[in-house]
């Protein structure tokens, strides 16, 4: 992806970040069973049961699913409504196509995958006892978003620290990693570290239904933005817009391994003469996929509109504003905004429920304004 950078002022994260830390650690220390009742009406309250035993402290792997439990959308929910990012904060309603294919959660049959050749930048601070949310860069922020999303929906998750290549760019680790893991899953969902799930309560299954991902679709990606004023950017040698490998859905079917093998071996110039051009120059494995691989496997490739799963608010080209998946090619600090917005929404909803329900012990009605 190549576009002129468009910088925007850094959002003030201190207040929301502080609240996230306050409530998260508050939940970790909160061990009085009666105070877990904000999820009334939902069974299997794992956090409440853990809190009932004063010798146990709930783990974050229990807390995250509990926080989002009342928000999660069913895989075949006919519609999904959200608040847009404009100044008016209008409601947008999206409707599934008829006869959705995926009607039940797939759980551990879906892998949320992160790939890196380096450890998380935040790990050094953590080891030194200096970890703080404010210091978190976009790589750690993105990975935390992906892991929390997997926890929310019960998906499997892996952070793969891959070896560096000697003869090509590090992003070439993607095809082999996909091939090495897909046999154990129905789907792999991969995001670059600077890409985020915009709605952590919206499951992969709903998105597969919305995008009409069919059994023959081995690889799904979103298109890059395309601007008629600069048609040379983000296009292959046939002037066809590239797909962006910052978000990839890999489905386990008969063609998948063949596609991934062809992609991985492309720079060897055996099957695809000239593909070695993309060992180092931008956009590396993405250019190779766009220039060669997709032309041999047209029926197995699903291309999404850029607006659906690429870009972020403020990108005008091709309306690439990240409706479901946001990819921050620039302004990467905004990765943390998406994560904090999701966490704060999950935390404040049960708090709001307490006051709306006039919870005894919290809300008391004073009928006369007199001193007794």
UniProtKB/TrEMBL annotation:
PROSITE patterns: PROKAR_LIPOPROTEIN. InterPro entries: Glyco_trans_34, Nucl-diP-sugar_transferase, Nucleotide-diphossugar_trans. GO terms for biological process: protein N-linked glycosylation. Residues 188-297 form the Nucleotide-diphospho-sugar transferase domain. GO terms for cellular component: Golgi membrane. Coiled coil: none annotated. Transmembrane segments: none annotated. Keywords: Glycosyltransferase, Transferase. PANTHER family: ALPHA-1,6-MANNOSYLTRANSFERASE MNN11-RELATED, NUCLEOTIDE-DIPHOSPHO-SUGAR TRANSFERASE DOMAIN-CONTAINING PROTEIN. Belongs to the glycosyltransferase 34 family. This is Nucleotide-diphospho-sugar transferase domain-containing protein.
